[in-house]
Amino acid sequence: MNENYMLKTKNAERLYFDHAKSLPIIDFHNHVSVSDISEDRKFENIYELWLRSDPYKHRLMRICGADEYFITGDAAPYEKFEKYCEVFPYLAGNPVYDWSRMELSRIFGINELPSKKNAKYIYDKCGEMLSSSEFSNNAILKGFNIEYQSPVASLLDDLSAFDGKTVAPSLRGDNLLSPTKELISELSQKTGVTVTDTPSYIYAVSLMLDRFSASGCRFADHALDSDFFDSDTDGKKADILTQLGVEYAKRSWTLLLHLDAKRKTSSRLARVAGAAGGYAAVGGSFNLSAVCELLNKMECKGGLPDTVLFPLNMNDQAPLAVMQGSFSEDGTASKVQLGPAWWWCDHALGIENTLKCISSFGVLSQFIGMTTDSRSILSFVRHDYFRRILCSWIDSQNTQGEWELTQDLQGEIVQKICYMNAKDKIKL
Fold this sequence. Notes:
By secondary structure, the chain is an alpha/beta fold. The chain has 18 helices and nine strands. The protein has helices at 10-20, 34-39, 46-50, 55-63, 77-87, 95-108, 119-130, 137-142, 181-191, 198-214, 228-231, 236-250, 267-273, 288-300, 317-322, 348-361, 381-400, 407-426; strands at 25-30, 146-153, 170-172, 219-224, 254-259, 261-262, 281-282, 306-311, 336-338. A seven-stranded parallel β-sheet has the order 1-2-3-4-5-8-9, sandwiched between helices. A two-stranded antiparallel ribbon has the order 6-7. Helix 9 (181-191) packs across helix 10 (198-214). The radius of gyration is 22 Å and the shape is globular. The two termini are 34 Å apart.
C-alpha cells in the first residue's frame, strides 16, 4: 500500500512520519489469546490467523450472500479463504476492507487486492511465511512495537500467563453483576470467605481483585448492553457495579464502560455462529441519566475511578463527551472521558466523529486514544489506521478551523493522543 495512505496533505504526512508512526503501542483493552502468547503459537495457514475467528469478516461475507458453509460450516480452510477473497473487492467502503489490505501489506508484504483469481497465490505465499519461526504469534506481535497490552480475563481465571508488565490482565467483570450460584461457590472456595450477602460478596471479590493488581491489572471492563438499566428492575446490578467501582478506585484502576450493544438479534445466527458471531447490532440512544447517576453514586461513596465511556451508538458520543467536565478531580486529567470509537464505529467516520465531539465538548489533547478491543493479533494495524486518520484530521482542523497551532504543538498533541495519555493512565 502507498506509504501516504489516508494522509491527505504534506503536513499530515509530516505529523504522521515525524510524530506518530514510530511511537510504541499501548493497547489497554483487547481480547487476544494469552495462551497463544505464552505458547508462541504457530499458525497452520492464513485462514487460521486471518479469518477463522474474525466476526467482522464473517458478517460481511453473510451480507454478500455467502453460504454459512463457507463461514462457520464444514468447508475446508482454503475454500473459506477463497470465498472471502471472492467477495473482498466488493467490500470497499467498509473498514474491514482497509484493515485487511493493511494486514496483508504490513505483515506479509502483499499489496495485491485479494480476489478469487489470486486467492491461491496469497494463501500459498502466506502459508510459506507462516511456516517460519519469523511469523509465529509473538514474532508478529513484536513487529508492532507493542509496549503494553491488556487482554481481558475473568475474575477466577488463571493469571499465570501474564507477565504483569508488557502483558497485563484487564478484568472482564460482566459476570460479577449477576453472580450465579456456581460463581459464588467457586469464589468462596478460592478466598475462604463464606458469601451470604452483598457485603460478603464484595469482600470476597475484592480479595480476587488484589490478585489481579499483583498481576499488573490497571483496567476493569463492564459491558452495559442496551437493556442494562431497564432489566435492572431492583437496581441490584447497578448497586454491585457502584461498589465495584469504589474498589477499582482504591486500586487506581480505570473503569471501561462499553455501552449500548444490542446482542440479541437473530437467534438462528446465535446458534450457528456462537456468542461472538458478528450478528450483534447497535442499540437505541442509551440511558445517559442512569450513567450519570451511576458515576455520581461511586463518587458519593468515596471512589469514582478514572472512567472511559465507549458508546456504540454514535448519537451518544456528543452528550458523553460533555461528561469530561461533569466529573472532575484535582490533579487528574480527564477523570471521565469519551473513549475511542468502538466495534461497529471504529472506522474513519466514527473516529472523526469521536475527535469532533471530544474537541467540541471536552479537551482533545487529553484523549486516551486508540485501543483495538479485538481478538485478532493482526488488529494492531488499527493503531496505524487511527494514527493516519488523526494526523489528517488535526491538520485539517488547524488549517480550516484556524487553530493556528505551531507544527511542534500539533506534533505534541498527536504524541499525547497516540501514546502519552494512555501511558499516564496506566502509570508505566
